[in-house]
């Protein structure tokens, strides 16, 4: 097999390259070990518009991986990243077409940046490379590479959901975007629902290609070890002491309207109203780092969340108890893992999610002798694999409230049985197995 070429919107920052810290970098860690790899994408830097013509690709090598990055101009960042990728494709793919803020100029910039990426990447490629393109920012990149004469095998993986054609067609130019995906030899998605939706769109526009399901996972062994060893961390001990022996409910989500946070907070208020015996007797910690803070919809969301938290704490709190401990700054993974282990229940209730690896991390972090309970949205991509969680509809506040009560009153034996049924799938479908299965499928394209 030739060299693996990974293309993503962002390339891991220099500080994260030896020990990747988040998201895609963690998921691909196993894929890039032990073979020659080129990782190409945006540097994370913005440059003045008048410097765009002269920009160069920066090259940096760490062990067996060569990182190749290119800057974006301020106009490209605004149109490609904030405008089209996150202002149009993100809400549409999460079934929120009403939040799209369409601009033809942003659409033009989106395609222009994909073309620029192809032009900068093409000279770096070798004839036997396997090219693996990631996520919605780069839907048209495969076609842009084909138009430059690149004949390598090219695969694409979508980490977020894909909507049914009845929603997708609301996007101006949806047919052209769908047809551009024909350039990929393999297209992977997270769930059967996503594959069905992609293939429905393909059939409408006359594309014979078929999306395939490659569910993503985590590295459960290392996360479990981190959860166990992290209990000795002074910060973790500080949290445990502050609980005063009360059960901990935890939620960890990036601040995004797809995560269902206003609905979750209101469900928690219903829980306190419906089950008053828990007032002052349970701790709820919600960790929600701010993201895309300059996007108007996210500013509105933060204001809404601040208001709901203030209302709940003001209504139900007491001088020695706060109903919701609410953080809007990141917490390191080395603390999150033992936080999960300390908790009696986790709320993972997105309105729509590609997979949601927090659900799998929570299961991996548990002490098998005294495990917590996962409360999981039916609309998370992980739900079909995790039927022994307490599955809920996040739009139904009473159902979520009842699940919280059930999790806190559940017997130890039932908690153990549920965890034992969840554990095998978390260990079977890992980040490493996901990467290997996709790369194998791409490598076999020619032989088929």
From TrEMBL:
Transmembrane segments: none
UniProt keyword Transferase, yes or no: yes
First-level EC class: transferase
GO MF annotations in UniProt: alpha,alpha-trehalose-phosphate synthase (UDP-forming) activity
Keywords: Glycosyltransferase, Transferase
Native source species: Acetobacter pasteurianus subsp. pasteurianus
EC number: 2.4.1.15
Homology family: Belongs to the glycosyltransferase 20 family.
Signal peptide interval: none
UniProt-recorded name of the protein: Alpha,alpha-trehalose-phosphate synthase (UDP-forming)
InterPro entries in the record: Glyco_trans_20
Biological-process GO terms, alphabetical: trehalose biosynthetic process
Superkingdom in the source lineage: Bacteria
């Amino acid at each position: 097999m030739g060299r693996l070429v990974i293309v993503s919107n962002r390339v891991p920052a220099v500080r994260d390259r030896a020990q990747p810290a988040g998201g895609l970098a963690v998921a691909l860690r196993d894929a890039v070990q032990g073979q020659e790899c080129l990782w190409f994408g945006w540097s994370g830097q913005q440059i003045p518009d008048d410097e765009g013509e002269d920009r160069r690709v920066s090259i940096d090598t760490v062990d067996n991986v060569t990182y190749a990055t290119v800057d974006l101009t301020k106009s490209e960042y605004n149109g490609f990243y904030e405008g089209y990728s996150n202002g149009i494709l993100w809400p549409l793919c999460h079934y929120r077409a009403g939040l799209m803020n369409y601009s033809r100029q942003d659409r033009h910039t989106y395609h222009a940046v994909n073309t620029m990426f192809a032009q900068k990447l093409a000279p770096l490629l070798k004839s036997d490379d396997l090219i693996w393109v990631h996520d919605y920012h780069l839907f048209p990149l495969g076609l842009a590479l084909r138009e430059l004469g690149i004949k390598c095998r090219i695969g694409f993986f979508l980490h977020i959901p894909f909507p049914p054609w009845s929603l997708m067609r609301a996007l101006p130019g949806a047919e052209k975007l769908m047809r551009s995906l024909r350039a990929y030899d393999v297209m992977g998605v997270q769930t059967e629902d996503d594959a069905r939706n992609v293939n429905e769109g393909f059939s409408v526009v006359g594309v014979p290609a078929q999306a395939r399901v490659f569910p993503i996972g985590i590295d459960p062994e290392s996360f479990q070890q981190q959860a166990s060893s992290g209990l000795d961390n002074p910060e973790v001990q500080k949290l445990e002491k502050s609980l005063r022996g009360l059960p901990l409910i935890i939620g960890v989500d990036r601040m995004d309207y797809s995560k269902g946070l206003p609905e979750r907070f209101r469900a928690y208020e219903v829980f306190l109203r419906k089950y008053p015996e828990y007032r002052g007797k349970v701790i709820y910690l919600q960790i929600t780092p701010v993201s895309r803070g300059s996007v108007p919809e996210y500013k509105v969301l933060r204001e809404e969340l601040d208001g709901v938290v203030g209302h709940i704490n003001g209504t139900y709190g007491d001088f020695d108890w706060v109903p919701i401990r609410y953080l809007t700054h990141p917490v390191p993974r080395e603390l999150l893992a033992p936080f999960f282990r300390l908790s009696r229940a986790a709320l993972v209730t997105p309105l729509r999610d590609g997979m949601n690896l927090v659900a799998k991390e929570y299961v991996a972090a548990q002490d098998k002798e005294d495990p917590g309970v996962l409360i999981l949205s039916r609309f998370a991509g992980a739900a079909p694999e995790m039927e022994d969680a307490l599955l809920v509809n996040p739009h139904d506040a009473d159902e979520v409230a009842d699940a919280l009560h059930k999790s806190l009153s559940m017997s130890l034996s039932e908690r153990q049985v549920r965890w034992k049924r969840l554990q095998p799938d978390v260990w079977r479908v890992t980040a490493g197995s996901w990467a290997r299965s996709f790369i194998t499928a791409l490598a076999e394209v020619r032989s088929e």
